[in-house]
């Protein structure tokens, strides 16, 4: 399976502890490119308008690799959107794992979570995951699916992003064709065992596997 990892500009405190050991090639968006280089990771592509790093930092990024530099031509798209588009068009990965997309500014968080609602990006929704220290967000298009539990996660949330009828037949808290007219988070559900099933008829569904934060003291 071909995996591409994308690091965007969110707070480093939200990174998984094993970020640098994640399998797959890396792409950096704006400040994410600098953070990859600082961690000894050579990205195969960097993307953005680079307004969050200075000229010396940008020179450091360019000197660290020989791949593509894609400069965002306008403000109609976010750095993350341009990176996602460029990754799928150039590399056609089976999965795209996005890091640094959570925490910090709420407008950035919402733009990242809602990215797959844009019809242009929706075709890639099932291949995209947002990953941080506590959460994995994955997206589904209408159909029937089996979910596998991540070993370090306890909780499940089902988030209809568009109107749909959602069925959860074998989770701890079940639903039978429950209709939602607006986005809602069916939060704090759990697996019964190591897998579960879901089905829905239309729209886009986000599923979040999460764990409680570990104490820092």
TrEMBL record:
Residues 143-206 form the Thiamin pyrophosphokinase thiamin-binding domain. Its EC number is 2.7.6.2. Keywords: ATP-binding, Kinase, Nucleotide-binding, Transferase. It is an enzyme of class 2 (transferase). One of its GO terms (molecular function) is thiamine diphosphokinase activity. SUPFAM superfamilies: Thiamin pyrophosphokinase, catalytic domain (SSF63999). This is Thiamine diphosphokinase.
């Amino acid at each position: 399976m071909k995996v591409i990892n994308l690091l965007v500009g969110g707070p480093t405190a939200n990174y998984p502890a094993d970020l640098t050991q994640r399998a797959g090639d890396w792409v950096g968006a704006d400040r994410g490119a600098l953070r990859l280089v600082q961690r000894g990771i050579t990205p195969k592509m960097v993307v953005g308008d680079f307004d969050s790093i200075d000229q010396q930092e940008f020179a450091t990024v360019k000197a660290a690799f020989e791949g593509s530099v894609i400069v965002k031509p306008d403000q109609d798209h976010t750095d993350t959107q341009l990176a996602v588009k460029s990754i799928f068009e150039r590399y056609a990965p089976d999965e795209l794992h996005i890091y640094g997309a959570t925490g910090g500014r709420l407008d950035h968080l919402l733009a990242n979570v809602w990215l797959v609602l844009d019809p242009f990006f929706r075709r890639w929704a099932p291949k995209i995951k947002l990953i941080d220290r506590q959460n994995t967000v994955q997206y589904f298009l209408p159909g029937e699916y089996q979910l596998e539990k991540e070993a370090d996660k306890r909780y499940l949330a089902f988030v209809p992003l568009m109107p749909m009828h959602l069925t959860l037949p074998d989770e701890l808290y079940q639903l039978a064709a429950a209709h939602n007219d607006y986005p809602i988070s069916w939060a704090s559900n759990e697996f019964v065992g190591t897998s579960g099933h879901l089905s829905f008829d239309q729209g886009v569904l986000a599923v979040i596997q999460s764990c409680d934060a570990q104490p820092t003291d």
